[in-house]
# Entry
Amino acid sequence: MSTRRFTDDLPDPEPPRSAPPSPRMPTARPVSPPSQAASQAESAPREPRGAARPPSGLHLPRSLSQVINEADEKVIQGDLVDFVPMPTGFDPLDGLIGGGLRKTELTLLGGAQGLGKTIATLQIARNIAMRPDQYSFFLSYEHTEAHLMHRLLCLESINPPEIDLTNGLKLRDLYQIIVAQRGKQFMGRGGGAGSLLTILREQPQTAPALSRMLRYSDRLIMLKASPATTNLRSIKEMTARLADATGGNVTVFVDYLQKIAVHPERPRDENDKVTIIVEGLKDIALSLDVPVFSIVAADREGLKSKRIHLYHLRGSSALDYESDIAIIMNNKYQILAKDHVAFNPYTAKQYRNWVVFTVEKNRAGRAMMDMEFELQAQHFAFNPRGQRVQQQLIDDKVIES
# Structure
């Protein structure tokens, strides 16, 4: 398999190929910034704790006239990326947050375990990478790159947003196909394939999923991050390289915020640690001019509550202050107002597979808006065609169409 150094320029978008080469995954090894940038950084304003100074493109004071002229020149050249958001592919979520994710903005996604936070985040990263001019950088502190690839194969087997369950793959089905075909080849029986790609291409149940995944495989960069070594500095340095290589067309995804390594800082407690991390992620979004999307875990009190809110996320009030958009996930069945006159326990069971996404903070639009999406957990996918919640939820909050 061919490799590419993380510092190399990424290729120009090309039509889908039968088997595009997989780029080498970025490493978390810190790289010293150029001496010139380091000397400039000494006189620059102090950055948030835990934030690394960018090796290039250091922000310096500019007059309003300079800002206007620079923006004018970009528009003349047809560079409109600062005005065009990256759609998440989830409707009506995109409509409520101004069209999608925007550069310089930090978006947080919170909720309890098992609601599909990683599923939704990886699906959004996939949706952005499907655009021929956009790249996604997915850092996972929870799963290996191979496991994420297996999840994507299951997702592609039902082809969101079409959601065709006819040939839907479960993780168990995928593993059985691979082991069975490799076993045939090992035993010398006819029809056994020797490589993973050959197996996936030759099996009717996996071939369409593989074909769809290969369309964006060069533009979805993944990293198995380490909670011991992958800190804010290394994340910023890797993101800076990707931003340089892609012309700034990269969106950063973190799964999840509280696991980011914090050193050499010595936080006093969990709140202080989260403050350092969220300030650092916001700094990455602002200084490198990229969107940052991060999962946030709920605290112990939040897990006990009937409905999780932004203030239930594990950490500090900095999550509220620093984020531009905050989305909270809850299981719809759990937060239905069961004492409401219209509640029917028999029909309510259908909502167990539905997840309510609540936009609890939105700097550029309306907040406290509820929408719902159906989760296909066995295929690691949401149906991205959602709808506004019509039923009454707990907290005496009713959303009308």
The two ends are 52 Å apart (CA to CA). The first strand starts at residue 106 and ends at 111.
